[in-house]
Design brief:
By secondary structure, this protein is an alpha+beta fold. It is built from twelve helices and six strands. The strands form two sheets. The protein has a four-stranded antiparallel beta sheet, with helices on one face. The protein has a two-stranded antiparallel ribbon with strand order 5-6. Helix 8 packs antiparallel against helix 10. The chain is elongated and about 115 Å long. It comes from marine sediment metagenome. Belongs to the FtsK/SpoIIIE/SftA family. This is FtsK domain-containing protein. One of its GO terms (molecular function) is DNA binding.
């Protein structure tokens, strides 16, 4: 039977018997190590936290206890000097005198005056009479020496339609017809329209062929033509044919001279028409600012340009 004091100091009968037999067979040092490891493992299982998290929790708790610790003030010890006895006249004089009494210094007054004069001088230096502003604007308006430069100063881009480009178009036509025949789709390329950046291939389908079959071949067509993307038009506007837009390997640069110096340009345009480029047929495309006046106001999308108008 274990001693009562031994049982109390070792955590009850279970802890006492466990400590007694472990220390008897493996020694006190090994028993202490095993019990310490058991305590750590049980703590990890109960809290479901890692050792680092438990260490941080203990550190935070110690910091909170440290800051919550009351600060004891030093006792005020009375001395002979603090026990001075004032007369009634001295007390009245002490009460009448404010705690924070500041006397003006002449140095600060001088600095303040100089700052004030500097501000007034600066304000007067930027003042301009309205007649001067009117005269400057009027002089710009009345200047009639400026002339609009002629269109001859604009440059046209070089035409890149060559034998190499025509050969590439023929190769693409043969590739398209071969792929369609491999998938048992009766169709042929009826027309080719080359634009500055995209070439449109018109595909004429045989009677009874569904458009859905060609739409499912989009990825196969991209791989066969060696292009990252293409667009299928079903149908081409104004035609009874299917359209396939393929990006050009050699792209043309459309300059302002190509549009404004074009022979088939419409001369009856409005004053606020702006050229934006060419379409697939090579015809110039314009937009009329009168129909979209919000473009005359600078601002990002959704900033309220149309609401302002």
């Amino acid at each position: 039977m274990l001693n009562r004091n031994f049982v109390v100091t070792n955590g009850g009968y279970i802890g006492g018997y466990l400590t007694y037999y472990l220390s008897k067979f493996i020694g006190k040092i090994a028993t202490s190590i095993i019990l310490l490891l058991s305590l750590i493992i049980s703590t990890l299982i109960l809290t479901r936290k890692s050792l680092k998290e438990i260490r941080d929790d203990i550190k935070n708790l110690s910091m909170k206890l440290k800051f919550k610790k009351p600060i004891l003030k030093k006792p005020h010890i009375l001395t002979r000097e603090s026990e001075k006895i004032y007369t009634s006249a001295e007390l009245k004089e002490k009460k009448s005198k404010p705690k924070h009494a500041f006397e003006p210094i002449e140095k600060f007054k001088k600095i303040y005056k100089t700052k004030e004069t500097l501000q007034t001088d600066k304000a007067t230096s930027y003042e301009t009479s309205p007649t001067q502003l009117v005269m400057s604007v009027a002089s710009v308006i009345e200047d009639k020496t400026y002339k609009i430069p002629p269109l001859s100063i604009l440059h046209k881009s070089k035409i890149l339609i060559s034998t190499i480009t025509k050969k590439n178009i023929k190769d693409v036509v043969r590739t398209l017809e071969r792929i369609l025949s491999d998938f048992k789709i009766e169709a042929k390329v009826s027309d080719v329209t080359r634009g500055p950046n995209v070439t449109l291939f018109s595909i004429q389908l045989a009677p009874g062929v569904k458009v859905r079959k060609i739409l499912t071949l989009e990825n196969d067509l991209c791989v066969a033509l060696g292009t990252p993307d293409l667009r299928i038009l079903t149908p081409i506007p104004g035609k009874a044919a299917l359209g396939l837009e393929v990006p050009n390997k050699v792209k043309e640069i459309v300059t302002l001279g190509d549009i404004l110096l074009s022979p088939d340009i419409n001369r009856d345009r409005g004053i606020l028409t702006v050229p934006i480029g060419k379409d697939l047929n090579g015809e110039p495309v314009f937009i009329d600012i009168v129909e979209m006046p919000h473009l005359l106001i600078a601002g990002a999308t959704g900033s309220g340009k149309s609401s302002c108008l």
